Amino acid sequence: MAARLGLFLAFLCFVLPSLTLGAVLQQRATCTPASHGEAGVDDVPAITEAIQSCGNGGIILIPAGIVFQLGSTLSFAGCSGCEMQIEGTLKLTDDLDAWNGVKAIVLLDDITGATIHSVTGSGLLDGNGVPYWTEFNEDSSYSRPTLVYIDGGSDITIENLLVRNAPNVFMSAAGDATNIHYSGLTMQAIPSNGVTPKNTDGFDIGPASQVTITNVIVDNQDDCVAFKGGANFVTVTDISCSGSHGLSVGSLGEGTSGNTVTNIFVSGATMTSSTKATGIKLWDGSSGHGVATVSNVTFNDITVDSSDYAAQIQVCYESTGTCVPSTHQLTDIVFSNFKGTTSGAEGSVVANLDCPADGTCGIIFESFEVNPPSGSAEILCSNVPSSADITCDGAASG
């Protein structure tokens, strides 16, 4: 028995180091595409070839110090469990004609398993927005692409990148995508030469589920995060938004379908110089409009820093004439642990809550300590029940 045990132990001592060494040597395939190094020359074909070669669990490396021009949609077709490591720059070309009416610059269409990130933190995704904002300002029919569009699929992570000057929306997750994770992103839409960014939502989420957004900084001129119809189980933590239209549910109710947002949790947000920190945008009850259902939404631990409103509910969103009463259903909507100071743009009003006249308004306020720059805080309310636990100082608008 002792001899057999000795032989067994000797076998382990010989085999285990060999197995460990084999595991180390079995590395993932890595493909490094080459850039033309010339502005306006499309480098997407080279990146696409790398995805085709290394997309099955491998790594596509965008090397540091090199700019790759995106003159056509960069599709992740062929990626399954792949990783794009961006240490250099991916930059949109100036070809306005080529991009008019195109859905996305970077497209993940029904992809299962993908990571887009920078290991060193040097990676830049540059949307080159200025010529596109300029064109849209001159011609509102010009249709600009979303910078990164996830359409269906699952298990996708985008993290640790600088993302700058999206021509339109920065990040979209739709098509019933699931298990989508954004983290460690700095996203900036920077006005230049008098050109103001337009429609640069940070995140448009929905229809999608099991989405997390954490540790991100957004500096833009539209919604910081928009929870669109079909958004379900979305968690946002540790986010800073500057210059935005806030953390927004909606807009909902413009059409007759896709008007449900459920199970949203936001905690730890700093909202600076925003038109509102948090809010819900609903169309009115006019013919052709739908009924929205918004339930189990929590805005918690919100710091208001010179934003116009701390909270806003609109039931006449985009109305130009008579606002027709609606039957939208709002249930279990919580605004808790708010603090800070508004901009004073709305005088002493810190919240404007216009609930649906013929629907439900299941909202509650807890520890809402927001003040105007001077005077006493006022909250405007319409169709808000006493169960909301707030003191209303007049009728709401919007």
From TrEMBL:
Pectinolytic enzyme involved in the degradation of xylogalacturonan (xga), a galacturonan backbone heavily substituted with xylose, and which is one important component of the hairy regions of pectin. Activity requires a galacturonic acid backbone substituted with xylose. InterPro entries: Glyco_hydro_28 (IPR000743), Pectin_lyas_fold (IPR012334), Pectin_lyase_fold/virulence (IPR011050). The keyword Repressor does not apply. The active site is at 245. It comes from Lentinula boryana. GO terms for molecular function: hydrolase activity. This is Glycoside hydrolase family 28 protein. It holds the Pfam family Glyco_hydro_28. Belongs to the glycosyl hydrolase 28 family.
